Amino acid sequence: MRNRANTQYALPSSILHWLMAAMVVLQLFIAAVMMASLAYHPFLLALHRPLGIVILIFVVIRIVNLFLHRPPPAMSTMGPFERLVAKGSEFLLYTLLLVQPLTGWAMVSAAGDPVSLGPLQLPPIAPEHASLFGLLRIGHSVSAYLLFAAFTAHMCAVLFHTLVLRDGLLSRMAPWPNRRSGGQGTSSAEQTSEEATLR
Question: What pTM value is reported for the model?
Answer without folding.
Answer: 0.82
